[in-house]
């Protein structure tokens, strides 16, 4: 009896001998002894294959072709815009000169064109009122007035005093032209991409 009691007393009973047994396994654990489970990792997961040399050369070639086409077109657009703006500004200055002579008959204002310097002056007698220099992309190609050469003026009625004429502006690369045309009788000033009909005998 004594031996059995001692044997029973020396035994320890546990209701749950394994802490993880019978419990749901956490992610990444096997559930036995708390050991983490092994995960299978695919060899190509999350790794970019990159680009081949042929693909890179193709992208560079396409980019080069786009630049070759776009850059000249961009330059031509800027040149054409600068030419048009210069012609419009000149037409406005000619109209201002006309208005000055109509509103102040005692004050004679004229515009003198400098073909060599690519500029023109608004002057009253020997006094220069304003100088306008054309943009670098624009060339003052020609001035065609009947009597006063490179000068244009108006009388008190707004009629041009060489009888009208044309100022020709062109781009430096001679790809575009604009004409500032002054009508001989009415003094109407307009800007046109084509020369006046009188140049063709019309």
From TrEMBL:
Membrane-spanning intervals of the chain: 56-74
Record keywords: Membrane, Transmembrane, Transmembrane helix
Name assigned to this protein: Prepilin-type N-terminal cleavage/methylation domain-containing protein
